[in-house]
Design goal:
about 240 residues, Arc Repressor Mutant, subunit A, Beta-Lactamase, 2 domains, 5-stranded antiparallel beta sheet, 8 helices
Length: about 240
C-alpha cells in the first residue's frame, strides 16, 4: 500500500486563495476570501501579503486580483502545451534534412528559442552567444526581424548591438536591412554565427505569433539543403500555433 504523500498546508491554502481570486471576475476582499476558503482572517491576511509580495496577487482598493506573475505563468503554460504538437514536426524535419531543427518566437520585444530537435547524427549549434543578442547573425533571427514592421525592427536593433561574432557576421545595419529585403521567404546564415556551421530558416506567422523554423547544417551542405522541407514544417507549426489558446 502506497504511503500517503506529505502535503504542506500553507502551500495548499495559498493555492486555494489563488483559485478563489481567479474564479472571480472582480477583485475579492480579504474577508470574502477567508469565508470562501474557510480560513481564519489573520491567516488569510498573512498569505495574501506573501502572494502580493511575490507578484501572484495585487492589492486594489476593492480587493485582490491576479498579479503579473500569474500572467507569466499563463504564457509559459501555453508554450508548454504547444510543445507536444510542435516537437514531432521538428523531429520529422531533423530526420528529413539530417540537421538539427529549431523553433523560435518573438515575445515581449525579444527573440526566444522555444525548442530544439537534435540528435547524435544532427547535433545542435553551440549557442555560445544568447539568441536574443544575435538575431543579426542567425537565420531565424533575420526571419523574425524581417517580419517586424520598420518601427519594431528599429526598436529591436536599437537595443541589441550588431556584435562581430565571426569574420562573416553582418555588423552594418544598412547592409542588414538590404539583406532582409532581398532574402525572400527563406533566410540563411553562412558561418555568420559560428564558423563551419550554416542555417536556413523560414517564417512562422499567425495573427498572434511571429517566429521561425530553422535548421542547422555543416556549412558545406548549405547549397543542398531542402528549402521545401523547411517550408512544409513552418506551415505545420503555423497551424499548430493558430489553434493554441
Amino acid at each position: 500500500m502506497a504511503a500517503e504523500p506529505t502535503l504542506i498546508g500553507s502551500v495548499q491554502r495559498a493555492l486555494h486563495l489563488l483559485d478563489a481570486v481567479g474564479a472571480s471576475e472582480r477583485p475579492v476582499p480579504a474577508k470574502v476570501l477567508a469565508r470562501t476558503v474557510g480560513l481564519p482572517l489573520p491567516t488569510t491576511y498573512h498569505l495574501l501579503r506573501t502572494l502580493v509580495h511575490e507578484g501572484y496577487l495585487c492589492k486594489l482598493d476593492d480587493g485582490y486580483a491576479l498579479g503579473s506573475q500569474v500572467s507569466g505563468l499563463r504564457q509559459h503554460t501555453s508554450l508548454h502545451a504547444l510543445l507536444p504538437k510542435i516537437r514531432p514536426v521538428l523531429r520529422a524535419l531533423r530526420d528529413e534534412v539530417h540537421g538539427a531543427a529549431y523553433l523560435s518566437l518573438y515575445s515581449d520585444g525579444d527573440i526566444k528559442l522555444i525548442d530544439i530537435a537534435d540528435g547524435p547524427a544532427a547535433p545542435s549549434v553551440d549557442l555560445w552567444v544568447g539568441v536574443h543578442e544575435s538575431a543579426h547573425a542567425t537565420a531565424f533571427g533575420k526571419c523574425i526581424l524581417s517580419g517586424l514592421d520598420s518601427e519594431g525592427r528599429r526598436d529591436y536593433l536599437s537595443r541589441h548591438r550588431l556584435a562581430d561574432l565571426t569574420p562573416h557576421t553582418i555588423t552594418d545595419s544598412r547592409v542588414l536591412e538590404q539583406r532582409l529585403s532581398q532574402s525572400g521567404d527563406v533566410f540563411n546564415d553562412r558561418e555568420e554565427y559560428l564558423l563551419g556551421t550554416a542555417c536556413l530558416a523560414t517564417t512562422v506567422r499567425t495573427p498572434g505569433a511571429l517566429g521561425a523554423v530553422a535548421i542547422s547544417l555543416p556549412a558545406r551542405r548549405l547549397g543542398s539543403a531542402p528549402s521545401q522541407s523547411l517550408r512544409r514544417a513552418a506551415q505545420r507549426v503555423s497551424r499548430a500555433l493558430a489553434v493554441t489558446p
